[in-house]
Design brief:
The structure is a homodimer. Chain A is an alpha/beta fold. In chain A, helix 5 packs parallel to helix 7. Chains A and B meet through helix 3 and helix 4 of A and helix 3 and helix 4 of B.
Chain lengths: 300, 300
């Protein structure tokens, strides 16, 4: 049975993953705090993942083959150091446990590039795993535990480290979403100098990586990045060009914050072991992002 | 208010810690799955630590200043690779979270020498933290997370790594308890060659270390060991001598298992920062252990 449980199904990445799972021959059980109307091959479950008893019952009821766990405390501007990271870590451990106890065989979880040490070259196999945020520590600790657990009980597992996703559904205060939204409205966009080089990845590509990971039997840790670094400033200038606007984005030293110079994935295992490659280049991703935001403000 | 919550209060180490806390001017709240009669300054709480909601309510009711958390899945012969390690890890995270949320200020937790890499020299500050058991991984992951959490929210924390405790109340199948019990009964004690060198510590000393840690404000990780390594074979022979028995213990190659050669604590921070030193030498600890087992079989 191709029965799969997806958590975080109403989140930024999760919504796109759900679409990709539905395009496959899968019976999808989506978990969320507030229920949504069931679709042809998706059943929504209203469960608070912090309630271990209910989670265990859900897994026994569904008895899924696979678990794709994306849910985590992700409140914009707060999640880096929020106490809720402990809740999310504990909930993840109990979720994996309940899943395996109910006969589950394949688990894929969302990690983060923040598990790496960002103070030096980042991120290759040589980069130390020395997170500086509570969020990164919590994700890293869960990774270690789930990895050891999977080895111990013979569970097939994969961990996809998310880098810098952007696209439809991103929180409107995050940098690319904010710029796309404001450009569409003809508003000014004050930015920091944007020197930092990042591995931006269109959210559809991120989602496809997770959909492929859950179908595969590849084991271990995979960086979900394009492998291409782009300066944030160049991304924003290109966005402005694609929007057909001029001079709305300004770069100001006074908005500069202390940021690591470069965070780009080097790991190619998603390509070599799972057969995934990004399908969207930056222009296409940014164009779709602008179009999505434009649709949200049809009257302007 | 010197109000403290002690978990694992009915466990091997916990029972001795409880006695030591009661000898101090503290209001002790002991947590256990099955309640016991309240004493003059101890209140027992019947709570399953896996029930996060009840744990949160308990902390709100008690509002303790300190938390001494010893509880963990510890079934003899099973705990090294048991699935329950995930439950214990998750429960610990939620317990610390609930404690801090209820205004708690000082938390002390039990770690293990199994957090270290046992394949080389063990254990000094140079020994890598590379646990090979699920138990060790789970403890290590919790340590990392609680450490980051404590730094992030400004919680005073300490982590005491337990080495090889022995003494009254130890599981009767563990090596020293088994030998003491059988020697007292005049029964033969078939043993492995016992070449391994270990840092054995009388459980009263282990308990005193934790009682001192919770009173102190010392922060970070502390190895709870004597710093002295003894061959297991020598411990057993001395036990036989103190029991006044001869020839009951036999050492057999056929019982040999693959064991790390030497695991001895080198960290002296408990002495320099907390003022703790072992009060029991091996002879005194073994003598008391023999006497305790003899009391359990008064008719023989």
């Amino acid at each position: 049975v191709n029965r799969i449980v997806l958590t975080g199904a109403s989140g930024f990445v999760g919504r796109h993953v759900l679409q990709r799972l539905l395009a496959r021959d899968l019976e999808v059980h989506a978990v969320a705090r507030s229920p949504r109307p069931d679709g042809e091959s998706v059943t929504w479950h209203e469960v608070d993942l912090l309630d271990a008893t209910k989670v265990a019952r859900l897994m026994q009821d569904i008895r899924p083959y696979a678990l794709l766990h994306l849910a985590w405390y992700a409140e914009h501007g707060k999640f880096w150091s929020a106490r809720e990271n402990l809740d999310s870590a504990a909930a993840t451990l109990e979720l994996v446990r309940a899943f395996e106890q109910a006969g589950g065989r394949r688990v894929v979880l969302a990690g983060t590039c923040a598990e790496y040490d960002w103070s030096g070259d980042c991120c290759s196999a040589e980069t130390p795993l020395r997170p500086s945020s509570l969020y990164g520590v919590a994700k890293g600790a869960v990774r270690e535990l789930v990895s050891a657990y999977a080895s111990s009980v013979g569970l097939s597992w994969a961990w996809g480290r998310i880098f810098f996703p952007y696209g439809p559904g991103e929180h409107p205060d995050r940098v690319i979403a904010n710029a796309a939204r404001r450009l569409g409205l003809g508003q000014e966009v004050p930015c920091s100098p944007g020197d930092q080089v990042r591995d931006f990845l269109y959210v559809h590509d991120v989602a496809e990586a997770f959909a492929k990971l859950v179908e595969s039997e590849a084991t271990g840790v995979f960086d979900v990045g394009s492998g291409r670094g782009v300066r944030l400033k160049d991304v924003l200038l290109r966005l402005q060009e694609l929007a057909g606007r001029d001079g709305l984005i300004t770069f100001s030293e006074t908005l500069r914050r202390d940021e690591p110079a470069r965070i780009v994935a080097e790991d190619r295992r998603l390509e070599t072991e799972v057969g995934w490659r990004p399908a969207y280049d930056l222009d296409r991703g940014l164009t779709e992002t602008l179009a999505w935001w434009a649709d949200r403000y049809p009257d302007r």
